[in-house]
Specification:
By secondary structure, the protein is mostly helical. It is built from 8 helices and 2 strands.
Length: 194
Amino acid sequence: MTDTPGIAAARRPVPLSRRRVDWVLLAFFAVNLCFITYFVDIEQLTVANAAHFQYPLWPPPAIVNLVHAYGRHYDPLLMARPAFWRMTIWIDVLWNGPFYVAAIYALARGRDWIRVPALIWSGSMSAVVLVILAEEYSGVHRAPHFGFVLLLNLPWLVLPAGTIARMAREHPFTEPALAPAAFPASGQAEQAGT
């Protein structure tokens, strides 16, 4: 390892077994990728009007029914689907979904390059969720049971904040590699002694 300016020190991934908090992020990103983004959220793009629709090719009818039951009982905003809401879903499908794939890979393999995209995702997710919660709390499509809706949405505020904390270091997933001891070559040692 060297402290010479301009020369990057060798780094190696910290094994996932030593990064236990990353298991929480991995699980969160996997649930978002495999259930929320491309099952629950995409329904709001494939079904434009929840009051009058035919079941789309995707997601399956059981998911459509689940989303609509939740929306009818707890979340009028989800059922109204105003333009700003649908744009948040497009952000989820086009940006967050691919991010989750990259983040799952990077966290599992210990790749520091995910740091900046993770910070961007954290800010974006926090902003979107706060805007939605403001509407749910006091907007035109106010949630009748805001406390329950807030509780369901808390992971999308807490985990981005946790991700920001996790990515605060320049190298969140790697550590300096142990460099072999620097022994001069035999010819150099002889020259140095003369």
